[in-house]
Amino acid sequence: MIMNIAFPVCGVMLTIVFLYKLRYLRQRWSSARVWALCATVFCFAVTMWSAFPASVKVINRATGIPNVAELVAAVGLAALGGLFLVLALLWRYSTARAWPRIRWVIPAYSLVIASMVVLFALSDVPEERPVDFTFHYAGQPTIAAMYTIYYAATVTGSTILTRWCLTWARQPDYADLPYLRRGLRLYGGASLVLVVYALLRLLTMAANWLGSSALDPMGNLVPVIASLTGCFLLTAALVIPVWGPRWSAARRALGLWSAYWTLRPLHRDLRDVNPNAVFVAPGRRLDVQHRIRRTLIELSDWRWTLSPLFDPAVQEDACRLGERHGLAGERLTTTVEAAQIKAALHAWRDGVRAGDATAADRYGDERDGTDLHCELAWWREVAAAYRSAAVAGVLARTRRPATAPPS
Q1: pLDDT by 10s per residue, the chain, length 407
Q2: Which of 131, 276, 349, 380 is 20 to 30 A away from residue 254, measured at CA?
Q3: Does residue 264 lie in a domain region?
Q4: Whole domain around residue 304: which residue ranges?
């Protein structure tokens, strides 16, 4: 059954978010906002865990009270409606300014929950109905009153919250906080889902009062759709304001890792020149900026060591073959550089050495290495050209190890 899949999935997601946020309660600086946030996620998770049919049967049998799981889920969702309002007020205002309004929200929803508990206790619901409890007992006055109070409070509170969030998101003081604006809109969307859920359930229950069960399939499907949509929107609303500003840093890190893996084949080949130069600081193996910086340093050092072995004949062949492949400008330059490096590396592996380091001045470029961004872009192009058909063709044409140029 779809409820036995959708509700636990939502419950798992919300439990993970709750446990992640719970650690902040142990810190001294934890505020009323943190407490309200944790309580909101907790109530939503409790509602999900207690609402699906398999869980309903377990809770009912554990307590010995028929259909008490329905009350637990309803109380959890009613409390969630109040906590939505409290959390929104604490986000928008300081605790001192929010408190006068919160003093009305907490007693109002506490009264709703107390009324629901009393009305459930006065009801006669002996037959366990894990799926259609609301509609099966809709004709019983106490159950009808219980859900009418519950849905009316949900519609009222969630409508107010939706209006607040969408209004606040347009306020000028959020102009420089685009991710917070998106979070408010998503939070308002989550409360709007509760409004639609409560109205459709109330409509289905009203149809049952009039003796019609034609809307029951819709009424039973609404909780599944609402739980999945509401869970997604609430999670996004809580995550985006925090992680949204970090997205640019995450994209930069992904770009650096992509650059690192582009350089890696060239780095692995050139390390034969001096394997002892390879260094990764302890604890920084996953620090991509450190890995890139070290890679560039090591590549530059190995190139400097090989530069006396750069062969003018290889340079000429690379220019000709590169132009034949349609290369020009920077691409032709990097292809020539890659061919020189590859030919010099083959000579190095064949045991050729040269002590005249000044020969590098004739064939090296004039980059000073102070601009790491340009240095990285250069080496990425060289690394790509190193594996190209043009460079392979140059090496095939020379058919001999590179030798040191004359002094």
Answers
A1: 566 677 788 888 888 878 877 776 666 545 787 888 888 888 888 888 887 778 888 888 888 888 898 889 889 888 888 888 888 888 788 888 888 989 999 999 999 999 999 999 999 888 888 777 888 888 889 998 999 998 898 898 889 889 888 888 888 887 778 888 888 899 889 889 989 999 999 899 888 888 888 888 888 888 888 888 988 898 888 788 777 777 777 788 888 889 889 999 999 988 888 888 888 888 888 888 888 989 999 998 898 888 888 888 888 888 887 777 777 788 888 888 888 888 888 888 887 776 544 444 444 454 555 567 888 888 988 888 888 777 777 777 665 444 444 44
A2: 276
A3: no
A4: 271-398
In a domain, 198, yes or no: yes
Contact (CB, 8 A) for 46 and 222: no
Q: What is the reported pTM?
A: 0.60
Q: Are 270 and 345 in contact (CB under 8 A)?
A: yes
Number of Cβ atoms within 10 Å of the Cβ of 89? 22
Residue 262 domain-assigned (yes or no): no
| CA 69 to chain centroid | 33
Same domain, 84 and 176: yes
